[in-house]
Design brief:
The structure holds 2 protein chains of 2 kinds. Chain A is α/β, with parallel strands linked by helices. Chain A has 14 helices and 17 strands. In chain A, strands 1-14-13-17-15-16 form a 6-stranded mixed β-sheet, with helices on one face. In chain A, strands 2-8-7-4 form a 4-stranded antiparallel β-sheet, with no helix packed on it. Chain B has 13 helices and no strands. In chain B, 51% of the residues are buried. The chains are: A alpha/beta, B mainly alpha.
């Protein structure tokens, strides 16, 4: 970063500049976490229909085998993250709040953790449909946090054609460094995955967009770029929330995804670094998604870093392992701007979780207890990346005038990035207002339907 | 105990009381210069008006059974700003009335901070302009020898009596001189503040510097003052080009309350638009109305009414200047943005 970069690299208008707080983990190599004695595997880990368990209590499973199969197109299978025995299938707490159905695996001790082996696939020989099927079989969902099934994103309606695959290496949330480390340590898999997805989409080029606080990653990928002629690496300014796909498309290609629309409507598909890197590794070996890299950081953590965590590892085990001392008062899954807090240490790490942030009481970011009236200072108007008017939307929300919020002021374009709440000097919980308003509007639409 | 919160979990570190405190800091040099120029009369006027505002706010909070809201500093700002727009020898009791009207009619009547349609300080001043037309147009020149030991006689007028004019204590403002006596005060005097006028409006340079401090610190937006300055120069420039008996753009910019109004009154966020285009339009309206009142009205100064009228147009301005939202592309422009599949 630096003042010169302000002119050097492109970015979008509005948004905010955040303290990036990545210094504790950006230089920590990715390390492997041991297996917890019990893994909690929710059947629903992502957007879409929950998977269907195909194992029963008492059954032994081998690391890597399918233990729940996809239930339809909007669903992905789940693979056993460790060898062991299914202890039970029941209701367990998850990050989303209500308890959901989960499988508990009692894992064998560490030494026997060899993955089941599968027939390697010759990717080059696959047809488009077979490739999409292969992606679904890996159980892959967006690992950047959205958790949208990857194969669905790759299945573009036939009336559209894709010319560009955008690889999202922004990692614009503070604290998180998993994408950064993956780009530094696994550029070959990243490029392999990029190539495979370009093929799956029929895209003629790919652009890897990386924020300029990770110039070492830009270099690491450029070093491996020979042989991949249609893949470009473009640094962009460090600027929140650039990792939002619509904004990144605008920055890199100058195209604007229509309101309520999808990137394929402008000929683009966006995938996150972690998703693509995993696919680059898993697809040729015909394996499934059983672990992911997450950043564990925050106050009171002795060994902050980037860890490969078997899916289903309870937060409690993770915290024990990174030497957590003290009292957690605030546990966040994901980044500090868009992540959600969890109520229980028994919540497991699932596919879309990119980070675990722990704040203890003293360090909880300053939240003033007093909410003042809106003084219309317009800071939120200048911050909203979707160019909405949060000040006005907030006033409408308090008056419960939900319909004009949607119809005249485009509330549904809000993706809850948190910029407006962050800058509001009156401490008005704008994002919270919008979340509630949106769910009320959705509810009303359902009732009418 | 694990707390549940909703995102975002980070918060910027600028709070409302901090913003308002910085505005108070920025007003202090202007107050100091006012006191230097006009002595203890100015000091007493600032103190009385501000106290009146603070007491009024406390009284109305008490009557409405609301929490004390003094710690947000907005009552103090209204008080100081209002005092700065009054003539040096303005009777103190009238100052107290102005403060009471500003807070009661201008602010608490609408529901308190954040809800007022008009700038409270200017509303208070508009009231005393109508109620006490003689007192509010009696100007005392600055820098009088006994200003630190002696009150200007009219300051100490007893409540509900009119001040008696005393010789040697009057001097017309540059705008009045220009309008009624065709005498133009040099711009350097206007810039440095050695002219007569309301206690806080005399030095354009100082006001500009204090406003710049707030803009640079990110406390205040730059668009509204910029819009007022640019529009003022353009509009008065056109008049001046046609007939140079009209005041020059530089004179228009530095005389009267324009500088104070542009930087500290029109920028009151509550009574100004939130949309960027709206801010430009708002600034243009203020400049245009100020110049029309100055050139063709019966009053030498028009910035106060211009801002109040512009305040009234804000709800409409906001409706017609909503920004183009991301992803809402008109058919005409879609080619330009290169959307492949439109």
């Amino acid at each position: 970063m630096g003042i010169l970069n302000l002119f050097k690299y492109k970015t979008f208008t509005h948004g905010i500049h955040l303290p990036d707080k990545k210094e504790h983990t950006r230089d920590q190599k990715i390390r492997r976490l041991p297996f917890a004695p019990e893994l909690i595997i929710p059947l629903s880990q992502s957007f879409g229909t929950p998977a269907k368990a195909i194992v029963s209590p008492g059954q032994e499973v081998v690391r890597g085998e399918v233990i729940a199969k996809a239930d339809g197109f909007m669903s992905v299978p789940i693979h056993a993250p460790a060898s062991g025995v299914i202890k039970e299938i029941g209701l367990y707490p998850t990050a989303r709040g209500p308890k959901t159905e989960a499988m508990i695996i009692k894992t064998w001790p560490g030494a026997s953790q060899r993955s089941a082996s599968f027939e390697p696939v010759n990717i080059a020989s696959l047809t488009h449909e077979q490739l999409i099927q292969a992606v679904q079989d890996t159980g892959m969902v967006g690992l950047g946090g959205a958790g949208f099934p990857t194969h669905v994103k790759l299945s573009v309606p036939s009336e559209y054609s894709i010319d560009t695959l955008v690889v999202n290496g922004c990692e614009c949330e503070p604290y998180l460094t998993t994408d950064h480390r993956l780009m530094l340590e696994h550029p070959a898999e990243l490029l392999q995955g990029t190539y495979l997805l370009m093929k799956a989409l029929g895209a003629e080029k790919a652009i890897i967009g990386i924020e300029d606080n990770k110039m070492d990653a830009v270099q690491a990928i450029k070093d491996k770029l020979s042989g991949f002629e249609h893949i470009q690496v473009i640094p962009v300014q460090t600027h929140y929330p650039q990792g939002s796909e619509k904004l990144l498309i605008k920055v890199l290609l100058g195209r604007e995804v229509p309101s309520g629309g999808f990137p394929y409507q402008v000929g683009v598909v966006v995938q996150n670094i972690a998703t693509i890197t995993q696919l680059g590794k898993l697809l040729p070996k015909n394996e499934g998604l059983i672990e992911r890299v997450i950043t564990v950081t925050g106050t009171g953590i002795d060994k902050p870093g980037n860890y490969i965590v078997p899916l289903g590892t309870p937060i409690r085990f993770l915290l024990d392992h990174v030497g957590f001392s003290g009292k957690a008062s605030h546990l966040i899954l994901g980044g500090p701007m868009m992540g959600s807090t969890v109520a229980s240490l028994d919540v497991p790490i699932t596919k879309p979780v990119s980070g675990l942030l722990v704040f203890n009481e003293k360090s909880v970011e300053k939240v003033s207890d007093e909410i003042y009236p809106c003084i219309k200072c317009a800071r939120c108007v200048d911050a909203c990346p979707m160019h909405l008017n949060p000040s006005l939307l907030g006033q409408l929300a308090t008056k419960r005038e939900y319909e004009p919020m949607q119809e005249t002021y485009n509330l549904m374009d809000c993706f809850e990035c948190g910029c407006c709440s962050y800058v509001c000097p009156s401490n008005i919980p704008l994002v919270q207002y919008f979340r509630i308003s949106k769910s009320i509007l959705r509810e009303r639409a359902r009732e009418e339907a | 105990m694990i707390e549940l919160r909703t995102s975002p979990h980070m918060k910027g570190n600028l709070s409302l009381p901090q913003i308002m405190r910085h505005v108070v800091y920025a007003l202090l040099p202007i107050c100091a210069f006012a006191i230097y120029q006009f002595g203890i009369s100015a000091l007493a006027l600032i103190a009385v008006v501000t106290t009146s505002c603070v007491l009024t706010e406390t009284l109305f909070n008490y009557l409405a059974d609301k929490k004390n809201s003094l710690h947000d500093y907005t009552a103090v700002i209204t008080g100081i700003l209002l005092a700065l727009t009054l003539p040096p020898g303005f009777p103190l009791w009238m100052g107290a009335v102005a403060g009471f009207i500003a807070i009661s009619m201008g602010k608490t009547l609408f529901g308190g901070m954040g809800f007022n349609l008009f700038n409270p300080a200017l509303l208070g001043r508009a009231f005393v302009q109508a109620a006490f037309p003689a007192a509010i147009t009696s100007w005392t020149p600055g820098g009088m020898a006994e200003r630190f030991t002696q009150f200007i006689p009219s300051s100490l007028t007893l409540p509900f009596t009119a001040p008696v004019a005393v010789d040697g204590f009057s001097g017309a403002t540059p705008l009045a001189l220009h309008k009624f006596e065709a005498t133009t005060t040099p711009v350097t005097d206007l810039f440095l503040g050695f002219s007569s006028g309301s206690i806080g409006e005399t030095s354009s340079l100082l006001i500009l510097a204090c406003g710049a401090y707030l803009i640079i610190r990110g406390i205040m937006g730059w668009r509204i003052p910029a819009a007022i300055f640019i529009s003022t120069i353009l509009i008065s420039g056109v008049f001046y080009l046609f007939d140079n008996t009209f005041p020059s753009p530089l004179f228009t910019l530095t005389s009267g309350g324009l500088m104070l109004g542009a930087l500290f009154m029109a920028t009151d966020p509550v009574s100004a638009p939130v949309t960027p285009a709206g801010m430009w339009l708002f600034g243009f309206l203020i400049a245009a109305m100020t110049i029309i009142i100055r050139l063709f009205g019966g009053l030498p100064e028009g910035i106060m009414y211009a801002i109040l009228f512009a305040n009234a147009t804000v709800p409409l301005i906001e409706v017609i200047t909503q920004p183009r939202k991301f992803g809402h592309i008109s058919k005409k422009n879609s080619k330009k943005t290169g959307n492949a599949n439109d």
